[in-house]
Amino acid sequence: MPEVTPVRRTVRRPQPGPGRPKDLEKKAAILEAAKQLFPQRGYDGVSMEAIAAEAGVSKLTVYNHFSDKENLFAEAVKCRCEELLPPSVFEVRPGEQPIGEQLRGIGHAFHALISSDEAVQLHRTLAARAMTDTGLAKRFYEAGPKRTIDALEGFLKRAHAAGVLDVPDTHRAAIHFFCLLKGEHHTQLIVGCCERLAARECRAHIDSVVDFFLRAYLPR
Q1: What is the pLDDT of residue 107?
Q2: Are 204 and 96 in a shared domain?
Q3: Is the residue at 156 inside a domain?
Q4: Is 44:16 a contact under the CB 8 Å cutoff?
Q5: How many domains does the chain have?
Q6: How high is the mean pLDDT of the chain?
């Protein structure tokens, strides 16, 4: 009988692709660089090359993860908001924590976000560009303020369903809550005529907003 030559099979090794640890590390480094540079230098003062250098990656890697500077800017805003206002803050926990305490927690996290140096500087940058470019402002709003309002609206809907709040119009109530938290001080902070509130004053301000909100929306 003729000899049968065994067939050799080539084993293909898996190639590294998007989402692998090293890839995710680079993406995180790029976002961290963007979060630092955009507030420091303004949108126009930051290039993709500068972000790549700060992150320790190539410019091509930055473009592979974020197709352009506007996308990277929006992702940096989203990432910063999620750091200070993570989804866990908006979990309704009836029976575990009073609704007032939960609202205070949201209030402190939101106030810390809008009063941060990064947020104030970005707000000023967008205001300066408003006359010539509204597209970037829309990207900022979608990535930051709108996502935050939507998250609070979801929280209020769940609180309403659980019977711990009575909120017929959750979207309007979410906007009211955040506007009350901003108050007069945020406008003064943006235009540069005051410093951030001291911790004691900040607590008093947030307590007064939450008390006011509860008077409107606690079940009768």
Answers
A1: 97
A2: yes
A3: yes
A4: no
A5: 2
A6: 89
Task: Write the CA distances from 32 to 3, 129, 188, integer angstroms.
Answer: 63, 24, 28
Task: Output the DSSP codes for 154-191.
Answer: HHHHHHHHHTS---S-HHHHHHHHHHHHHHHHHHHHHH
Listed in sequence order, the residues at least 6 apart from 178 whose beta carbon sits closer than 8 Å to its beta carbon are 110, 148, 149, 152
Query: For the residues 162-166, what does the mean pLDDT come to?
Result: 96
Here the tokens at position 45 are 């003062």
Q: What is the pTM of this model?
A: 0.83
Same structural domain, 91 and 181: yes
Query: What does the pLDDT look like over 48-89, one tens digit per residue?
Result: 999 999 999 999 999 999 999 999 999 999 999 999 899 999
Residue pair 152/83 in contact (Cβ under 8 Å)? The answer is no
Return the percent helix, strand and coil in the chain, to nearest 5. 70, 0, 30
Q: Which two tokens stand for residue 92?
A: 């309704």
Residue 5: per-residue pLDDT = 52
Cα torsion 182, 112, 141, 210: sign: negative
Quote the distance between the C-alpha of residue 87 and its chain's center. Answer: 10
